[in-house]
User: What shape does this take?
Amino acid sequence: SQTIHQWPATLVQPVGSPLSLECTVEGTSNPNLYWYRQAAGRGLQLLFYSVGIGQISSEVPQNLSASRPQDRQFILSSKKLLLSDSGFYLCAWTEGTAANYGYTFGSGTRLTVV
Amino acid sequence: SQKIEQNSEALNIQEGKTATLTCNYTNYSPAYLQWYRQDPGRGPVFLLLIRENEKEKRKERLKVTFDTTLKQSLFHITASQPADSATYLCASSGGSYIPTFGRGTSLIVHP
Assistant: This one.
């Protein structure tokens, strides 16, 4: 069966520090991968999605970036964190488009920038 | 872009009753709607998908309806239980194949 792993679960980082969140999927090949952010009391905001290795689409221009170095690995990064980057970050995957299958989300990373 | 509206006020009901949550969409007539459950501090869990040519979809105690005239989807949980307490998110296609999520409605089922 397919599983998605996301880590770390919680992270407290100072302003200006770098960030690296990692997500891996097991049990499937060539998944569509996504990074979402959920701020308190707000909806899920799509940050990046990828339909294949090295293919990244950005939905929100900001100081975050994403990479997909391997088929089932998706990384969210920042060189310098801002206070506004605090939030709940979720990785997700779909087999094909989300039109046919719902998202499978990871357990999330709670990021607090101080 | 698509806009999804869900009631921001929590829905409080008694155990055993039917919970009904509403999802309204604007702009694009979606090809599908999805419903998710999210527990505090956890990622959302996919529950049901209903397409534009479907009026109703059922899964165990869950039922989803899709009314393109009203631009609305209703999510029902029959015989609700305290374990059903969670936030329920609606997501809709529209404009692109990537769905847009609502902010969710909190459901609290009292024993």
